[in-house]
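I am going through a labmate's work and have reached the protein record below. What it holds is a sequence and that sequence's fold in token form. Please read both lines and tell me whether the tokens look consistent with the sequence. Do not assume that whoever made the record got everything right. Thanks in advance; the entry in question is below.
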Amino acid sequence: MSMTPTEMAGRIVRYGELQPCRTAFIDAHTPGSDQKENFTIIGGGVSESADQHVHINEAHGFNIGAAGQPPKCRNSLHSHRTAEVFFVLKGRWRFFWGRWGTAGEVVLEEGDIINIPTGIFRGFENIGTDYGMIMAVLGGDDAGGGVIWAPQVIEDARDHGLVLGENGKLYDSKKGQSLPEGVGPMPLLTEAELTQFPELAALDVVPGHVARYWDLMALAQKEPAKVIGAEARLKDRPGFEVELLTRGSIPGEMHSHDRHTVLMGMRGHWRFAWDGGETTLAPGDTLSVPPGLAHSLAPAMTGEASLYRVKATEDPAGPTWRG
């Protein structure tokens, strides 16, 4: 399999060319959440807005996205039916969870990664001093069919002009929009339904769902550090695997994969070569490697170099399955 440089350019999303959506979700007008930017990099994602730009609209078996937020900006409590994995590209972030966001929390630094358990309400907040960015991997091509919001999020949004229809689309009264005829508002979860969302303490989440960057860097000195997978540090099978690669653990020879693979730059610059050309990846860049394409990786300069590699697996995307 070969690919021209022009064809490959269409599979690379540069960090500096990411196109944000500021009205992606129901809390876009809610004070405290109204400055966030959402990015859909690969796949349709879970955005509720028709304004969301999709950079690479090709099914991979998982979705890649990102969230950018200034200090003290937070993402409201929600849940997913498939995996939601984040790593911190820039800044310092607090992740919290539970019905009211008080069941547990953990602070992540740059490079740290969290595989949030499915079936719990979760949110996150930039607690750093500058604009921060977290990169996300969502399980499944349709990411579980969308977002499940805690009831108070829907109520707060309605007070600030945004209504989520039962069709999963947002309607903004500040723009003169209203629910179409025959479409009702998204119903709030009942008390009986809310009992299905467990309140997990930090000790129930952090040990098996959080991996620290410098621990992974130490593990990846001679071979890729397996971060998420059946035999990985965070044992889960969400429909994809995640590894951390460093200059000491890269496969220097040409190789290929039989499923979609995505490279996500963390630190340093990387030289990516394939049958047809060569390019350089910088921190925050995302590259989609098609199945069967022979390629190689090498650091492009001295210094710290790391990237996360996400590979599709045959496991079905669904609730967290650890084991």
